[in-house]
Each structure stands twice: as C-alpha cells, then as structure tokens.
Write a structure and sequence with these properties.
alpha/beta, Nucleotidyltransferase, domain 5, 2 domains, five-stranded mixed β-sheet, about 30% helix, globular
Length: about 250
C-alpha cells in the first residue's frame, strides 16, 4: 500500500471486542457502509451475516477491500479470538494486509470531530468489579496519540491518575464510562460522558485510524490479541503449577 493509493484504498473495520458487533468499510474520504448491533448471540453467529450485509450495502465485494483493521484488545476473550481469527482467514485467503488496533484507542477516536484544539479522552472498559481497562488518548484534529499506555487497573487508580495530571477537560468513553463518571467524578464538571451514540465500539473509528497511519499494516500472521490480563485458562494453569493467581496480567 503506497501513499499514492490512499484515495482509492478501501479498508474493512471489524470490532468484536464487546457485546456490540461492529463492521465498517471506508476509504480516505468517506464511510461507505456501517453495521453495528448489540447482540446476545456469539460473534461467530452474527459476524459473517453482518459482513454480507455490509458489502451489499456498500455495493462492493471482498476483492474490492484492500486491507482490514480489527480491534485486537482489550475486551472479551472469546469475542477477540473470533474477530481476529475471521480477519486472519480473510487476509490469508486474498493476501491482504491487516492492522491490529487497540480497542481503547478506537473508542477514543469515536469522539474525533476534526475540529481544531485538543481533546483528552479516558477510555474505560469494565474488566471485573471495581477494575477497568484504561487508556488515555489525545485528539488533535483528525490525529490521535497515546498519552498513557493501555493498562488494567483499579477504578480508584483512574481517579488518582486524574488528580496527578493537569489535563483540563476530559471525555469518558467505553462501557464503564457511566460508572466511572458517577462513582469517581460525579461533581467534577470537567469530566464529561461522551454522547451515548459515541460511547461504545464502532468500526468507523478503526477505519479512520488505519487510513491515517500506513505503518499499522502488517502481515496477518503477526496479528495477535492484546488481553492486558491473563486468561482464565492461564490462571488455571498457574494454579495447577502452584504459582497462584495474579490480580493483573
């Protein structure tokens, strides 16, 4: 993918990191189609039907897609595995490049408006009771940069991070945003919830990030999930080996 191909390049975005299944196709100038649904079914049941609908809505085929961007975590272990496996299969089949993008980064991109000025975004996803996946991002125009690396932490640590850093106004996104706002920042008017339609996963944001950064694309064989904490299977193995269990992975 060369810089000269940017205007014609079409990227498929796939996010299965939470209860929402979200897919989008976009080029540098516009979103061609988007389908986002909250489902109680497993992503393996809905992903391919949604992909068929998406392609039909955009009036394109898989061969028209130049590359794929996928949320690679944190998030649901099962959901991430399903999405990443599907993307790998599509890429191997047609020799496409792919980009694994942080779910927390993609969530922060939801509130990008392209306007001048700076926005600080706290992306917060529920990991366990009183524990969140947490990432801090800065939006400047259409660009996004990481301020604090994605981590898993106690909710109280998010409050301390806010107190230790002078960011001014903050926007909360993610499925734990409402809980964090009202448990930690209820009386802090400088910390605001993102609009409800921009608070959860949306594959449009994956496409935007990928289309703005060529360096993210690589061979599908290198695509892996970033869970940020150890899986249940790994915890069980550690217990059997006598290593105990870790609070954070």
């Amino acid at each position: 993918m060369n810089k000269t191909d940017e205007k014609s390049r079409i990227v498929l975005g796939v996010d299965t990191s939470g209860k929402i299944a979200s897919l989008a196709v976009a080029d540098k100038d516009r979103v061609l189609a988007n389908v986002t649904v909250m489902t109680e079914l497993t992503h393996s049941q809905v992903l391919l039907p949604l992909l068929k609908k998406l392609l039909a809505d955009a009036n394109i085929t898989l061969k028209d897609i130049d590359a794929i961007a996928v949320a690679n975590g944190p998030g649901s272990y099962t959901g991430l595995r399903i999405g990443i496996s599907a993307v790998k299969g599509l890429c191997f089949k047609d020799n496409k490049k792919c980009a694994g993008i942080s779910t927390l980064k993609s969530l922060a991109m939801n509130v990008c408006s392209g306007e001048r000025g700076e926005k600080i975004v706290f992306s917060v996803m529920r990991a366990r009771p009183d524990v969140s996946y947490f990432g801090v991002y800065r939006l400047i125009g259409n660009n996004i940069e990481c301020v604090n690396s994605d981590t898993v932490c106690l909710n109280s640590d998010i409050l301390k991070f806010r107190q230790d850093n002078d960011f001014g106004d903050i926007i909360l996104v993610g499925d734990n945003a409402k809980e964090i706002k009202y448990s930690l920042f209820k009386d802090d008017e400088s910390v605001a919830l993102a609009p409800i339609d921009k608070r959860l996963q949306n594959a449009n944001s994956l496409c935007m990030i990928a289309l703005n950064d060529d360096s993210l694309f690589d061979d599908a064989s290198k695509l892996n999930a970033s869970y940020l904490q150890i899986t249940k299977a790994e915890k069980s193995q550690r217990r059997r080996a006598g290593g105990g269990s870790a609070a954070f992975g």
